[in-house]
Each structure stands twice: as C-alpha cells, then as structure tokens.
Amino acid sequence: MRLKDKVAVVTGGARGIGQAVSELFAKEGAKVVIWDLLDVGSETAQNIIDSGGVAEFSKISVTNRNAVRSDLARINEKYGSIDILINNAGITRDKSLSKMTDEEWDLVIDVNLKGVFICTQEASHYMKSQSYGRIVSASSTTGVFGNFGQTNYAASKAGVIGMTKTWAIELGKYGITCNVIAPGFTLTDMTAAMPPEVIEAGKKLIPMRTVADPIDIAYGYLYLASDEARFVTGVTIAIDGGVTRR
Ligand SMILES: NC(=O)c1ccc[n+]([C@@H]2O[C@H](COP(=O)([O-])OP(=O)(O)OC[C@H]3O[C@@H](n4cnc5c(N)ncnc54)[C@H](O)[C@@H]3O)[C@@H](O)[C@H]2O)c1
After folding, report:
1. CA–CA separation, 106 and 128 (whole Å)
2. What is the pLDDT of residues 152-177, one digit of tens each?
3. Which of 11, 231, 236, 244 is the most buried (most CB within 10 A)?
C-alpha cells in the first residue's frame, strides 16, 4: 500500500475526479476525509467504508476559512496528523470576455483560487509541525493554454500553478512538497453537460483521440501524494492525452 495510514483531505471529493482520488487513496491505505458541498459525499465515504477502507465526509466549503480551520483541528485530534491535502474542488461559470459578470468572475476565483489558498495555508501549519506534507492542487489545460469563454477559470487555474511554485520554495525545508495536476478533458459531471458534438470536436484536438476517465487523473495524484515523489516539488504534471506537451 502506497499511502498506508496517511491522513488525506480531498476537497471536492464527493464526485468526479475527487471521488476517484478518494477511492484510490483509501485503497492504498489512507484515511480519507472528503470535503464537499454535496450531500452525496456521505455516500462516497460510505462506499469506501463498505469496501474496507477508512473514510468520512464533512460538508465544508473550501471558501469558509473558519470551517476549514475547525475541521482540520478535529481531524488532527482524531487521526493525529494531516499528511496529504488534495485541492481538487473547482467550478466553472463560462462566458466570453464581453459577457462575463463580476459575480461570475468572483465566484470562480473564490472557489478555485482563494479556496486553494485557504486550505493550503491552514493545512500547512500542521504539515510544518510534522515536518511532512503532500499538497497537490488541481489546475487544467485551460490554466496553461487558455480556453474560449473561460477568463475566470483560466485565471484561477494559472494562479494555482503560480501559487504552487511559491509554496514549493517556502515549504520545501519543512519536508512539504507542493505540486499540480493539470487534467485535460475528463468525463465527469463538470463536462457531462457539454453537447456531444462539442465533445467529439474536442477529441480531435487530443493526440490520444480520447478523453480521460477520472481514474486516469487520480493515478497522478497518487504518485505526487506518495513517498515515491518525495523529491518532486513545484511541478505541474499534465494528464491530458498530449494536448499541452510541455
Ligand atoms: N473534468 C475535466 O475535464 C477537468 C479538466 C481540467 C481540470 N479539472 C479540474 O478538476 C477538478 C475536479 O473536476 P471534476 O470534473 O471532477 O468536477 P465535478 O464538478 O464533477 O466535481 C467537483 C466537486 O467540487 C465540489 N465543490 C465545488 N465547490 C466547492 C466548494 N466551495 N467547497 C467544496 N467543494 C466544492 C463540487 O460539489 C463537486 O463535488 C476541478 O478543480 C476542475 O476544475 C477538471
């Protein structure tokens, strides 16, 4: 088992990529705490428990510093450490530049960027005192290449890469690694609403000519969260079928 007895918080872990990460980490021996706004998070946790893993669900928004702080204190008290933080929670509110409202901008920046800042800042206090930590955050091909209609999302996802490079410098001496996964097109609820013809057109732009399943992305998180990646920090791993090639 690659994460035996590690304590992992997975934000946005109720469904999609975060669910796959939670299930995989539990299979690899981690004690998984799912933070999400959706009640289905308790089913995700229960399924993990039914399969013999350790998991629990807390209904917490990554934007709520007080809730983040008090649940981390609770988790640390219960399990004795906070070893891994997966900053996966994310949202979209797509509009072209001329139509995007301040509300759409603020909402996406608040969850995708400030939420990652809040969770990392709060979790890093525990990781520093343990001299151990793994922080892996979600960017996107959009954060690297941009995408039509995603000014707010691109800003947030590019920001995650910049913040992570900074944290790698600040936190390295404490034994904490900070890295990014940049998924390409992945079949989840986030992308399910897209018209099939858009999905088909998107596939043609992917060298592998197919989209990812959440588990393809989860394996990247597993590597960066494991002790095998102990000397890897400040990097972005693209899991995108060859779209970004950098
Ligand atoms: N699906 C893709 O193609 C794709 C591509 C690139 C990057 N990503 C990124 O990967 C991550 C996961 O994407 P997904 O496709 O699984 O999305 P999803 O919508 O299926 O899951 C995201 C989860 O985050 C939760 N969430 C949203 N706001 C939250 C908040 N404030 N606090 C806590 N939880 C919150 C949602 O309730 C949901 O369960 C996101 O950061 C997304 O931007 C996804």
Report:
1. 31
2. 999 999 999 999 999 999 999 999 99
3. 11
Catalytic residue (choose from 132, 153, 174, 219): 153
Domain count, the chain: 1
Q: Which atom of ligand 1 is closest in space to residue 185's alpha carbon? A: 3
Dump strand ranges (E) for the chain.
7-11, 31-36, 54-59, 84-87, 133-138, 176-183, 236-239
Q: Name the maximum alpha-carbon separation found in the chain.
A: 51
Q: How many residues does the chain have?
A: 246
Per-residue pLDDT tens digits for 72-128? 999 999 999 999 999 999 999 999 999 999 999 999 999 999 999 999 999 999 999
The CATH number given to whatever domain includes residue 230 is 3.40.50.720
Residue 1 lies in a domain: no
Residue 244 inside a domain? The answer is: no
Let me know if 153 is a catalytic residue.
yes
